[in-house]
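Let's study today's protein:

:::
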Amino acid sequence: MLGTVVAEAAERFGDATAFVDPDGGSLTYRQLHVITDEVAAGLLDQRMGEASVLAISLPPSLDYVVAYVAAAKIGAITAGVNHKLTATERDAVLERAQPALVIDSDHNPVADLAVPGGAPRPLPPDPDRVVAIVFTSGTTGAPKGAVFANRQLSFITEVDTGGRWGGGGHTMASTSLAHLGPTTKLPGNLMRGGTIHLMERWRATTALELIDRHRMAGIGGIPTQFALMLANPAFASFDLTCVQAVVIGGGPASPVLVRQIRERFGAALAMRYSCTEAGVGLGTAFTDPPEDAEESVGRPHPGVTLTIVDPDSDVVRPDGQEGEVCLRSPAVMRGYWNDPKATAAAFLADGSVRTGDLGVIDDRGRLHLVGRRTERYVRGGYNVHPQEVETALAAHPDVSQVAVVSIPDLTMGEIGVAYVVPKDGGNVVDLAVLRAFATDMVAGYKLPDRLVLLDSLPLTAMDKVDKRELARRAAGQLDTSV
């Protein structure tokens, strides 16, 4: 369906600019349709075809978009490879994907693949034709590739657009194009007819400049990106009065951060929650009470079923009881690429996919996340969810960012280590002050036993806080704690 959307967008929007490269190059909607036809013809010349796998390992760029659309036009499957991965991580993804062709900075330049005037034969509609493989970030073990077909992309597009065309303005791509959002939401973004500004590497200053210069009315990103924008010393120098709507997704955001985003951008705010395997999930509406986005990740989108199950037995738990969050909808992945064992483990019997998150549904139907199943640790016989502790510590006025990990302890079994980025100009943060501050918000046994101050938190290739790296530091560098 991606190729069909591109063709219709070319008819509807013609010479309107669709994408702008980091170096200033651009493509109109009509040009996008023509060049992707020519590259699709070139892929056919390379003996690519339906169900062939094309790996794209490029930073966000016109070339990435063109290669992805061209592959879809011939029924080939795009395996996106995050350009921020290390060589070892990249090789692991390629080993799993087993592509017939790789496009990267050194091999098979997109321009060289184009056949001037060429065009592929239109494909017959097929909802089960696979379009893309979206890989996990690769920081928590062997990479797994979630498989998405036309059926999944069509449902996601319907959720995002309601089938309507037009209404788009200037927006920016804030994550790798190999990520779930850019991969599965591209049809919907093209239907809006707006201009998408690609960023080779996300930077807070660059993002703020783009918002100001192009008078962006709607912006989106992950919590880390918004925290970095708010902490940018030049934030107040930008005219951000154009922003009317903010969408946060891709990870948990503390109530303090949500309030700060809403207040400092002066805009309506909506929360989104899903995981790579689920495709779409839950969210809050811009018209919901403000506390909904501060306290929860909202309610299921239409067509999405939310279930909370016992993490060990898969028995469904009633509202008000904590368990693993599971989601079912037409957007859920078909399975993991070339990994039947992991695929079987990912699903419940009813087709719901496990998210790996722990949560509880309140009496208003809202989902509250309490942490990751794999991050939960036991201190002195009591369960501790780092996310709950992070939320409490993040409320301290001198804390800019915080992440909590666990380490082994001879006495308690496990203890918590808090990594904190202090606010510029704030008071010196120490462990006793933080523990005293959070005493009324979480039980004493949940509070961290150690504190490490950092200038910034390490990030994964997906721009999320790299807790695996923090755990490694905590285990080997405890002498830096205060």
Notes: Residues 478-482 have pLDDT under 50 and may be disordered.
